[in-house]
Amino acid sequence: MKNLSYIILDGNLTADPEERNVAGGKSLAVFTVAVNHTANNQEGKEKDDVSYFEVEAWEKLGENCVEYLKKGSKVTVMGNLKQNRWKSPDGENRSKIKVTASTVRFDSARKKDSKAA
After folding, report:
1. 23 domain residue, yes or no
2. How far apart are the C-alpha atoms of 24 and 78, rounded to whole Å?
3. I want to staple 29 with a disulfide (CB 3.0 to 4.6 A). Which of 62, 72, 92, 97 is the partner?
4. Which NCBIfam families match (predicted)?
């Protein structure tokens, strides 16, 4: 039986999505979503905090993200968590958790075309 690692993020892009071409000719968009939330500090008092999540969107989903999303765009991302592991050049074990998007909802309002009546 497979385990579940599903996540839903609601936040804003920190920069324009970056388009990458990977082996096999597949397209990939990579972007970071900032999620604002409230956290408790060491004294137990609430404070505003922000977390940053790196998101990968593949193929057509990624192409749409590159075309329609920009820095500051509000999005809701649904997908799976993925941990990448590697050894650094100095031999230390490293890891990074990313979100592989299955759905990206574009929540920012579309700007009206100034030529429209």
Report:
1. yes
2. 25
3. 62
4. ssb
